[in-house]
Specification:
alpha+beta, Rossmann fold, seven-stranded mixed sheet, five-stranded antiparallel sheet, 10 helices, 18 strands
């Protein structure tokens, strides 16, 4: 049987570049090589696409603090509309791939930009389409859509570059403590917990280093519960998992650097009826935001059993210790099978799109 050629896109021009490398490493080690032929395309921090060799595509691969892309000299160019799809600038065209698996966390990877390019290339790809990716990445737009759909969210204030709000006015709306975060980042990059006026201006300034739009959000005193969603038209929800941060909040370091940065309880200790309600809310969030393939929905559960959706992540961390694959593993889907299901969902969606008319 001919193997399905899967191009793994990783790295990218994002503050989450190193996280992406770790996700790629885990997929390479777990993918079913009897069924799939993997093509490694590393994107460096300048945005160049580099065809990599599996034997030497990462440097310091076992050290999350020092891991980096081993830049090859085989740069690729994309050919939209051409059957070749991509060519090497040093060699001839590479063989056509059947599906792309982007593990490009953050800006230009999960915000719809890459998804738009892949659609123009007319290739199947894993994860949400352009719209779902864009609104899932932009926390401001995401929260507005969720609010319109009647899904409970916390209070927030949006600031664009050049706009400002006083500490007193923000405190009046959000209370203390409050959070500040870039609107279009993930993995807690640029996120700070503001306790008092002395931290307000400096933390806002830092958040603006990562985006031109930021959010101030109220602190919701609740348990951090996450749910993984998988599917296209008929998505399913995983069991729930709880994040128990050992840092003040679930920071970048707690997620990816400090092995003891947080405890994970899977499945979460949540009453069955309440767990079912949270799973249904995760699926509703997924559908409201036009997501497909996969997403992780993060919620807060308060002491009085109120549920608030915090955010959705359409290309969640995909390392072996990441919450998304661990939730599905606890739901009976192994890491290798999860990779297979996501690729099949991508191919299914692409085949369905081919049935649409392109002329009138």
């Amino acid at each position: 049987m001919k193997k399905i050629r899967v191009a793994l896109l990783f790295g990218g021009k994002s503050a989450e570049h190193e996280v992406s490398l770790q996700s790629a490493k885990s997929i390479v080690e777990a993918i079913d090589t009897d069924k799939y032929e993997i093509v490694l395309i590393g994107i460096d921090k300048e945005g160049r696409w580099l065809l990599n060799n599996q034997s030497a595509y990462l440097l310091n691969e076992n050290n999350p603090k020092l891991i980096s892309l081993n830049k090859s000299n085989n740069e690729l160019a994309v050919l939209p509309g051409d059957k070749k799809q991509m060519v090497s600038l040093s060699d001839a065209a590479i063989d056509r791939v059947d599906v792309v698996f982007p593990v490009l966390h953050g800006t230009l990877g999960e915000d719809g930009a890459m998804q738009g390019l892949l659609k123009i290339m007319d290739v199947a790809f894993v994860g949400a389409d352009v719209l779902g990716s864009a609104v899932g990445m932009d926390k401001d737009v995401m929260k507005r859509l969720l609010r319109d759909a009647g899904i409970p969210i916390g209070k927030f204030i949006t600031l664009k570059r050049g706009e400002s709000v006083s500490f007193a006015d923000a405190q009046k709306v959000l209370g203390l403590p409050m959070f500040v975060k870039p609107a279009n980042q993930g993995s807690s990059v640029g996120v700070h917990k503001i306790h008092d006026a002395s931290e307000f201006d400096s933390f806002i300034k830092d958040a603006f280093h990562y985006d031109n739009k930021i959010l101030l959000e109220e602190f919701i005193d609740g348990r951090e519960i996450e749910c993984a969603v998988l599917g296209n038209d008929d998505p399913k929800a995983s069991v729930l998992g709880e994040i128990i941060p050992h840092h003040e909040f679930y920071s970048y370091e707690a997620k990816y650097i400090d092995a003891d940065g947080a405890g994970l309880q899977i499945p979460a200790n949540v009453p069955k009826d309440l767990a079912g309600e949270m799973q249904q809310m995760a699926i509703k969030t997924f559908k409201t935001l036009n997501c497909e393939g996969m997403a992780r929905v993060d919620c807060f559960l308060t002491r009085d059993k109120k549920i608030y959706v915090n955010e959705i992540n359409t290309l969640p961390g995909f390392t072996k210790i990441s919450m998304y694959p661990k939730l599905w593993e606890a739901s009976g889907v192994t890491y290798t099978d999860l990779i297979d299901k996501l690729i099949m969902l991508a191919i299914e969606r692409h085949e369905r799109s081919k049935e649409l008319k392109t002329s009138f």
